[in-house]
Amino acid sequence: MNYFDLIREKFGIILPISGGSGRNIDDPLLINHVNKFSAVFLEYDYLKYMAKCRNIEYQRTRQVLLFHNERIIDLLYITITEGNASYEENYYFDISESYRKDDEKND
After folding, report:
1. What is the DSSP string of 34-91?
2. pLDDT tens across 27-36, in order?
3. How far apart are CA 53 and CA 61, in angstroms?
């Protein structure tokens, strides 16, 4: 089961996210039907609830906007702390739809 389904099941929250695992640029999480400003907060919500599902603590450390295969990807780096150890994970969010939706409004 993916995390957006687990979040819905465990917390009763339906995030407008679909797609892949988000763990690499070619398998991003797809942000659906929101504007580009809301997309960022949705990414943060996803990470917050994903961390609760995994029972971990994390901190966002960096965020980078990438262009890949005609898609707009928001890459978030997080640092996870478990006991005395910490490590970094990356999450890729495809926000192309959000950017294009906003661009259409401005035309």
Report:
1. --HHHHHHHHHHHHHHHHHHHT-EEEEEEEEEEEETTEEEEEEEEEEEETTEEEEEEE
2. 999 998 788 7
3. 20
